[in-house]
């Protein structure tokens, strides 16, 4: 069958496959009698067959999308260019993956049969289990004893405020596009970029791994305590610390087995643990309604009582505790809200599940903490001694007055520390509950569920980080196994880290660091939401609307403040580690582009600054050379680019430009991207631009008029000297000289000449050819071989066949160049890198012959401020009259002092007016002879006819009128040879040719003889507006 495709510009969209994700095709006959194949969706929409496609979600997918196959719409060129009928067999298929962005990489080979969780099992259950930790059963009563239920509510509320704001921010980020695996790392990295994401991702994964050890040690300590109580230490295997290590290691092995068995088994284990935990919580509530026994009363439990409730309202901080220290102890109990987000890759619908499950978990757990506080049932101090019972209603005073009124005298607790009560007994929950062993089971459930959640979270987050290849050394851990892409290698690494910290046996030192690591993640999630909202990027369109950018900022600040409240040195350590990782990722510059809000804010700031700058008039003190360098492709004239970069460095604008471009526009656009990437990789701070035009002059004029933005516009044109002007042809020379129209656009102009030349394009283009020939040696001995090589190079997208037009068919392209050519190329490459290297000790000779506003002096001064040129001293040469040389020198010295420009020497040249040597004159005559008209010996009519026929030639009249100026260029070269032959760089005022008075070839002869046989020479002419001032 046949179909239409674009062949304009010899370009075919390699990513376009018209059959991808399309309805079945069918045959139909149109009104004009034509019978052809069409697609029903296209015909039903428009009534005719067309390459245009109706909007479809598949066009907007990333490559490797797990929710559907990616389709690629036809390119604009295919729709706009001239259409040709081609056979279907001639059209190559497409893989539909035009982007090499890591975000577009296929996540796994197959998702068939993968286990996916809904919002309840995947998020709600996990978050509740992770938030309900040991704190619920062991420390909550102590918190309310110290802070009272008044400030205790504040402690819980403040913790919930932090987590709720973080949950709202996370909900907004989650609903702003498809969420893949990686949890907090994925959310932060896709919002703030790889620098923030890479740094927080690594410490967040590490924090989860160490948290496994922390929870398991908590479990092991509880078991050891039970063993000690059961049989008076005789049940211990070795001793207390080693028993904790043994039990901890065995527990981690069991948890690892559950995790490696698969997410389905891990989820079932979480459900079992949740049921146990819920039963334990209900058991506490039931116990508060069971009438208290005498034993429980002696330990401070009196059921619900308003007097106890009122007494426990006010705080009673003891042992140097404060509100902030109590808050620091409780806050880790509110963390764990990322447990669901951390397995985002295993959720059926992360965008819906994460917000719903996380926020509901925060609400349920917050209410539970408030309800289980027991502030109305247990007094702060109790002896546990039944004999302290007294007759109720006696005289009572002091902190134990309420207990006294209820029939127990605990006044001894005011003198010495008691063992029971909210303040003293960490096992209050067990004592109050209806059945004590259930609380122990709940404690086990809380610790094990948190450990299991962290054991699953750490490898999942770490795997997502490794997949993005931000830390290349860690890519080994990116590989997944099984239908759920389980990170087995990550599990093993997490296991090793956990066991290592379990063997320490005491995690009191590491615990605050872990809490700060989690808080740093919360802070960045909040900041990500604020940053994305602040950037006002059109791509920020979260489906979840119940968030506020300023609330997110407050949440970020709160998280940072809480970090210091918990432990100031741990907060500083966390910031230090994050900053070091941030710097590392920034220096390494990972090759990813996720459209982060950092990019959006940078763009907004750049536009804002450019607009504010446009409202300020230019001032001579703020003048900077903004270079428009005509380099061609960025790699073809490295010496010109390096010198231009030395002028602008990081403080000015440098545009490298190319034109005309003969190839298709899309290829030109692709070339622009490649050239910009090359500039970035080689650390040249410059922008690249290309224009499509018919001539070099037209392209340059377009660039001169349209380049830049506002005040960020080029003001100096820089180009190389045209060495082949005598053989290039009339049109080429006219185009080159015509570029001096830059003066009309008020540009300063700089021309660089080097004896070896500047253009290395033939060497750059031959490198890929040499590589191809090394692998596929082909002799161009037949047209068939040429076609083979053409096809090969097209396949590799290296060069066009036209590159080989100059080669003879009987010569091997892959052979080495002749020795003479190789030596010339070697010298050219050495010269092309001259300005990239540090310059040897020497001079920069400035021949400031004409006042052009100071550009001729400013540019060499800027060079001396660069590290590469710091050993080069300025020498100034000026023209003067013999009788006043010393006076001219003093005037120039005074001027330079006012300009605050230092130089080592000022030389007055007072013999420039002398006639050049006969050899110089003879060389000039030989140079321009092919371009002279010689109309002087003809009659007037014949001379006019000759001039009309060849208007570009040099007339005898022109040579006569500008003889003095011509001789000046010759004489200047002689003086330059005498004084500046050994300089590192020569700066000379550029001669100007008046329009329609000086022929192009005569002007090129001037420039040629002026700069001939000299070290690297810059011809400079400013726009005759001051760029230097001596005013403050």
Report the portion of residues in β strands: 5-15%
CATH topology label of the largest domain: Amino acid/polyamine transporter I
Distance between the termini: 78 Å
Q: How many structural units, i.e. domains?
A: 3
Largest sheet: 10 strands, mixed
| SSE class | alpha/beta
CATH class of the largest domain: Mainly Alpha
CATH superfamily of the largest domain: Amino acid/polyamine transporter I
**Mean pLDDT rating:** 78
Q: pLDDT under 50 segments (min length 5)?
A: 1-26, 83-111, 769-813
Specify the CATH architecture of the largest domain.
Answer: Up-down Bundle
- Fraction of residues in helices? 40-55%
Compute the number of strand runs: 14
Specify the overall morphology.
Answer: elongated
Transmembrane segments: 123-144, 150-179, 200-224, 244-264, 271-292, 323-345, 357-379, 435-458, 488-507, 513-534, 546-566
Domain Amino acid permease/ SLC12A: 122-628
GO molecular function, one term: sodium:potassium:chloride symporter activity
Region (Disordered): 1-33
Explain how this protein is built:
This protein has 1032 residues and is of the alpha/beta class. It folds into 3 domains: 119-382 and 419-588, Amino acid/polyamine transporter I, CATH 1.20.1740.10; 616-763, 3-Layer(aba) Sandwich (Rossmann fold); 842-1021, no CATH class. A 10-stranded mixed sheet has the order 7-6-5-8-9-14-13-10-11-12, sandwiched between helices. A hairpin with a 5-residue loop joins strand 2 (26-29) and strand 3 (35-38). The radius of gyration is 41 Å and the shape is elongated. Residues 122-628 form the Amino acid permease/ SLC12A domain. Keywords: Cell membrane, Chloride, Glycoprotein, Ion transport, Membrane, Phosphoprotein, Potassium, Potassium transport, Sodium, Sodium transport, Symport, Transmembrane, Transmembrane helix, Transport.
């Amino acid at each position: 069958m046949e179909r239409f495709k674009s062949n304009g510009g010899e370009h075919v969209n390699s990513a376009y496959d018209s059959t991808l994700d399309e309805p079945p095709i069918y045959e139909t006959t149109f009104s004009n009698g034509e019978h052809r194949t069409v697609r029903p969706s296209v015909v039903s929409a428009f009534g005719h067959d067309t390459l245009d496609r109706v909007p479809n979600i598949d066009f907007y997918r990333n490559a490797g999308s797990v929710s559907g196959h990616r389709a690629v719409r036809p390119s604009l060129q295919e729709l706009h260019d001239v259409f040709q009928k081609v056979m279907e067999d001639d059209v190559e298929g497409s893989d539909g993956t035009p982007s090499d962005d890591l975000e577009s990489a296929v996540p796994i080979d197959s998702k068939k049969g993968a286990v996916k969780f809904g919002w309840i099992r995947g998020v709600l259950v996990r978050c509740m289990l992770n938030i309900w930790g040991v704190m619920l059963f062991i420390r909550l009563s102590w918190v309310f004893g110290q802070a009272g239920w008044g400030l205790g509510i504040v402690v819980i509320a403040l913790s919930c405020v932090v987590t709720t704001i973080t949950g709202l921010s996370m909900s907004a980020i989650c609903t702003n596009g498809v969420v893949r695996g990686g949890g907090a790392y994925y959310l932060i990295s896709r919002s703030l970029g790889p620098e923030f994401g890479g740094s927080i991702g690594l410490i967040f994964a590490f924090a989860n791994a160490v948290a496994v050890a922390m929870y398991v040690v908590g479990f092991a300590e509880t078991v050891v305590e039970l063993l000690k109580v059961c049989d008076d230490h005789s049940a211990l295997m070795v001793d207390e610390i080693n028993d904790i290590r043994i039990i901890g290691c065995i527990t981690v092995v069991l948890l690892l087995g559950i995790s490696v068995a698969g997410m389905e088994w891990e989820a079932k284990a979480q459900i079992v643990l949740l049921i146990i935990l819920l039963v334990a919580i209900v058991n506490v509530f039931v116990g508060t309604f069971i009438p208290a026994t005498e034993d429980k009363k002696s330990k401070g439990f009196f059921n619900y009582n308003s007097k106890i409730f009122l007494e426990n309202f006010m705080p009673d901080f003891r042992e140097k505790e404060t509100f902030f220290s109590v808050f620091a102890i409780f806050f880790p109990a509110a963390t764990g809200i990322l447990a669901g987000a951390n397995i985002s890759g295993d959720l059926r619908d992360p965008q819906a599940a994460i917000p719903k499950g996380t926020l509901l978990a925060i609400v349920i757990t917050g209410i539970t903490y408030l309800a289980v506080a027991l502030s109305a049932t247990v007094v702060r101090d109790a002896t546990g001694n039944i004999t302290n019972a007294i007759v109720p209603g006696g005289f009572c005073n002091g902190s134990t007055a309420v207990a006294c009124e209820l029939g127990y005298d605990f006044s001894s607790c005011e003198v010495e520390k008691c063992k029971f009560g909210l303040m003293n007994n960490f096992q209050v929950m067990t004592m109050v509950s209806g059945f004590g062993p259930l609380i122990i089971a709940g404690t086990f459930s809380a610790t094990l569920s948190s450990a299991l959640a962290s054991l699953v979270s750490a490898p999942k987050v770490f795997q997502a980080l490794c997949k993005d290849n931000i830390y290349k050394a860690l890519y080994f851990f990116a590989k997944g196994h099984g239908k759920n892409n389980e990170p087995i290698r990550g599990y093993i690494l997490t296991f090793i880290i956990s066991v290592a910290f379990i063997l320490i046996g005491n995690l009191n030192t590491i615990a605050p660091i872990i809490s700060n690591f989690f808080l740093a993640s919360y802070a960045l999630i909040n900041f990500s939401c604020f940053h994305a909202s602040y950037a006002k990027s059109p791509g920020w369109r979260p489906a979840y609307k119940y968030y506020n950018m300023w609330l997110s900022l407050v949440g970020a600040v709160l998280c940072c403040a809480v970090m210091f409240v918990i432990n100031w040195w741990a907060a500083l350590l966390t910031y230090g580690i994050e900053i070091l990782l941030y710097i590392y990722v920034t220096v390494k510059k990972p090759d990813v582009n996720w459209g982060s809000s950092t990019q959006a804010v940078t763009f907004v700031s750049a536009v804002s600054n450019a607009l504010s700058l446009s409202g300020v008039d230019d001032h001579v003190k703020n003048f900077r050379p903004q270079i428009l360098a005509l380099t061609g492709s960025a790699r073809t004239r490295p010496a010109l680019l390096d010198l231009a970069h030395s002028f602008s460095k990081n403080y000015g604008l440098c545009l490298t430009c190319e034109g005309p471009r003969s190839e298709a526009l899309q290829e030109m656009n692709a070339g622009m991207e490649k050239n910009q990437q090359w500039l970035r990789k080689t650390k040249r701070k410059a922008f690249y631009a290309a224009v499509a035009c018919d001539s070099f002059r037209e392209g340059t004029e377009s660039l001169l008029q349209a380049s830049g933005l506002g005040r960020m516009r080029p003001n100096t044109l820089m180009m190389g000297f045209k060495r082949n002007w005598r053989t290039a042809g009339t049109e080429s020379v006219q185009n080159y000289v015509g570029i001096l129209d830059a003066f009309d656009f008020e540009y300063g102009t700089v021309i660089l000449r080097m004896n070896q030349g500047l253009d290395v394009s033939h060497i750059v283009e031959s490198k890929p050819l040499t590589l191809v020939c090394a692998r596929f040696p082909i002799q161009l001995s037949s047209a068939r071989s040429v076609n083979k090589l053409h096809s090969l190079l097209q396949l590799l997208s290296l060069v066009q066949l036209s590159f080989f037009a100059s080669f003879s068919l009987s010569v091997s392209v892959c052979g080495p160049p002749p020795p003479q050519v190789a030596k010339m190329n070697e010298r050219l490459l050495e010269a092309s890198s001259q300005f990239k290297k540090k310059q040897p000790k020497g001079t920069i000779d400035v021949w400031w012959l004409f006042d052009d506003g100071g550009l001729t002096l400013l540019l060499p001064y800027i060079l001396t401020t660069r590290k590469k040129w710091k050993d080069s001293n300025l020498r100034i040469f000026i023209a003067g009259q013999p009788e006043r040389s010393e006076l001219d020198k003093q005037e120039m010295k005074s001027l330079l002092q006012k300009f605050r420009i230092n130089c080592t020497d000022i030389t007055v040249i007072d013999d420039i007016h002398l006639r050049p040597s006969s050899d110089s004159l003879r060389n000039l005559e030989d140079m321009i002879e092919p371009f002279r008209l010689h109309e002087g010996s003809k009659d007037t009519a014949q001379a006019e006819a000759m001039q009309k026929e060849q208007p570009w030639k040099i007339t005898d009249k022109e040579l006569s009128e500008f003889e003095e100026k011509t001789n000046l260029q010759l004489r200047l070269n002689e003086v330059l040879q005498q004084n500046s032959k050994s300089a590192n760089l020569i700066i000379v005022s550029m001669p100007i040719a008046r329009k329609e008075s000086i022929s192009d070839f005569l002007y090129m002869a001037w420039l040629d003889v002026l700069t001939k046989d000299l070290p690297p020479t810059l011809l400079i002419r400013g726009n005759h507006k001051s760029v230097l001032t001596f005013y403050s």
